[in-house]
Write a structure and sequence with these properties.
Length: 168
Amino acid sequence: MKKITPKLMAQYAVLIAMEVVLSRFLSINAWNLKIGFAFVPVAAAGLLYGPLPAGVIAAIADLIGSTLFPSGPFFPGFTLTAFLGGLLYGAMLHRRSAPARVLACVLIRELCLSLLLNTLWISILYGSDFFALIAAGGRAFQCLGMIPVQFAVISLLAKPLLRHLKAA
């Protein structure tokens, strides 16, 4: 395990702050849809620091964002999904950015975590029908639309981030 230095802690804090701002202020939020670029700091954490730090960064950002700037009632399932998303980015992308790995990571993230798990949390939280949310609620379109966006953004950012890691 890497020793947490003040410099590393500051880098984690910046990524957490970026995720909160991107998620709460620069995203399109509705009760069942969320479109934005809040995945970028968590994917960067996964690329640079690995699974556990990325998962913790995502979970802390979700907790801070939902506490300071709530967009609905707090539900711990969304924090769990955020943590699992960070773990996934770190496990699949840490120090690696091959297009096949990025695509596999994004597909798993969007289809398993966002489409299935987050839809389950929404259906539990609001008492909505799970399958209706996926089909008629627009969640499937949101997730399918985010796949090429995430793939392109992560692919573009991966090389400069990994160069930064080697230079540091």
